[in-house]
Amino acid sequence: MGRVEGKVAFITGAARGQGRSHAVRLAEEGADIIAVDLCEDISTVGYPLARPEDLEQTAKLVSAAGRRVVTAKADVRSAEQLQAAVETGIAELGRLDIVVAQAGIAGMKGQPPMQAWIDVINTNLIGTINAIQVAIPHLSEGASIIATGSTAALMDISKVDQPGKDPGGSAYVHSKRALTAYVYDLARQLAERGIRANVVHPTNCNTPMLQSEPMYRSFRPDLEHPTRADAEPVFGVQQSMLIPYVEPEDISNAVLYLASDEARYVTGMQMRVDGGGYLKLYEHHL
């Protein structure tokens, strides 16, 4: 028996990166998958987003693991689109047990002014809330909600040198902090129903978001067109362990644990998979 045998998981941002990894890992352990993704670009995001063929590849990998999968091209900024995807998935797969609100972007283009802020908040924060809230009516005792945060949510950005210079970057931090508070308070409300809600906080993760020129520039602002080779040695500044990043599978293992009955009494947790990044930021406290 797999660790999530017979369960159904709804995963946003499932076409590639962490979302695909989560879908495949949960499928390997027995879950059927409702996989959704935008599958088109957003103008304020300076790297290409997933395409329909990426979502199709996720579906093939889930099927290869022996599980059923329902896919939908859906925008997390639209609760209506997500609700339709969930209802279609449940109609085919019969139930819903796990929610993995994974979809997220890093908005690094500033034109028009403040649009990057709007797109990041709408995707990372409102999109996460949308995904969770369209699922809640379908969840019952034993269900698990998992949102993707970020070690960025744990950083002190109170001393920004140039406020307003990078609205998209500031929105990324704010969105991850705000969704963390949302999930924490949601966990309180759902506890008596036996439904759990937790956040996983990755550090740098080896996905197309990290491996992109806009992200390279954020680590190497001294260069006009930094390459991966230029930026990768600097990635390690985020972690205490001597690594540039973690792999999507490292996050998927945490997601699997939180989705499984092994974590049946774990709720309201901020689980860091950060290579010791938090250790660089804070003194020990209980």
Characterization of the model:
The protein has helices spanning 17-28, 52-64, 79-93, 115-135, 167-190, 213-219, 228-235, 248-259; strands spanning 8-12, 32-37, 69-73, 98-101, 144-148, 196-202, 270-273. The protein has a 7-stranded parallel beta sheet with strand order 3-2-1-4-5-6-7, sandwiched between helices. The mean pLDDT is 94. The protein has 2 domains: 8-205 and 246-273, Rossmann fold (3-Layer(aba) Sandwich), CATH 3.40.50.720; 211-244, no CATH class. The longest helix is centred in the middle third of the chain and has 24 residues, at 167-190. Helix 3 (79-93) runs parallel beside helix 4 (115-135) and helix 4 packs parallel to helix 5. The radius of gyration is 18 Å and the shape is globular. The protein is an alpha/beta fold and 286 residues long. The protein has 8 helices and 7 strands; from the N terminus they run E-H-E-H-E-H-E-H-E-H-E-H-H-H-E. GO terms for molecular function: oxidoreductase activity. This is Putative short-chain type dehydrogenase/reductase. Belongs to the short-chain dehydrogenases/reductases (SDR) family. Keywords: NAD, Oxidoreductase. InterPro entries: NAD(P)-bd_dom_sf (IPR036291), SDR_fam (IPR002347), SDR_subfam_1 (IPR023985).
Keywords:
single chain, 286 residues, alpha/beta, Rossmann fold, 2 domains, 7-stranded parallel sheet, 8 helices, 39% helix, globular
Helices and strands in order, then pairings?
Blueprint: E1 8-12, H1 17-28, E2 32-37, H2 52-64, E3 69-73, H3 79-93, E4 98-101, H4 115-135, E5 144-148, H5 167-190, E6 196-202, H6 213-219, H7 228-235, H8 248-259, E7 270-273
Parallel strand pairs: 1-2, 1-4, 2-3, 4-5, 5-6, 6-7
Helix pairs in contact: 1-2, 1-8, 3-4, 4-5, 6-7
